[in-house]
Amino acid sequence: MVVSCKIDTQDVVLSGYIYDSESEKPIPNATLKIENWYYGNSPDESYTGYGLYDLTTDERGFYSVNLDTSAMINIWVIKEGYQKEFKSEKRPIKNEKINVYLKRVN
């Protein structure tokens, strides 16, 4: 019997803040594109499930999304006047906090 080390995390709450990297002030209305990958009942330890989420930060630069199950999260953050930023997290925990600092475009 083969036991997989590829395990999904159930009931993940992904949240965080988006900040200006110089001033460290929150950035409202930033766009987040979030990919959520999971294994499910994969017979060959490959990802079998995928979800795409589009979010916008609130006036405090805060975002939050609930994921039923997750094995890997990719996040792209986009805001006019700033460089696009990418973050990735494998094996997220139940209360995964990911803050992102954006650099201004010169």
Secondary structure elements and their pairing?
Layout: E1 9-20, E2 31-38, E3 49-56, E4 62-70, E5 72-78, E6 85-90, E7 95-97, E8 100-102
Parallel strand pairs: 1-7, 1-8
Antiparallel strand pairs: 1-4, 2-3, 2-5, 5-6
Structure commentary:
The chain is mainly β and 106 residues long. The protein has one domain: Carboxypeptidase-like, regulatory domain (Immunoglobulin-like), CATH 2.60.40. The protein is built from no helices and eight strands. It has strands at 9-20, 31-38, 49-56, 62-70, 72-78, 85-90, 95-97, 100-102. The strands form two sheets. Strands 1, 4, 7 and 8 form a four-stranded mixed sheet that branches. The chain is elongated, with a radius of gyration of 15 Å. The termini are far apart. The model has no long low-confidence stretch (mean pLDDT 91).
Sum this structure up briefly.
With 106 residues, this protein is mainly β. The chain has strands at residues 9-20, 31-38, 49-56, 62-70, 72-78, 85-90, 95-97, 100-102. The chain has one domain (9-102): Immunoglobulin-like, CATH 2.60.40.
Looking at the structure, the CATH topology is Immunoglobulin-like
How would you sum up the major sheet?
Answer: 4 strands, mixed
Tell me, rounded to a whole number, the average pLDDT.
91
What's the β-strand tally? Answer: 8
SS field, number of helical segments: 0
CATH class: Mainly Beta
Radius of gyration: 15 Å
**So, CATH architecture?**
Sandwich
Residue fraction in strands: over 45%
* Amino-to-carboxy terminus distance: 57 Å
Derived structural class: mainly beta
CATH homologous superfamily name?
Carboxypeptidase-like, regulatory domain
- Share of residues in helices: under 10%
Number of domains: 1
Overall geometry comes to: elongated
Uncertain ranges = none
Order of helices and strands: EEEEEEEE
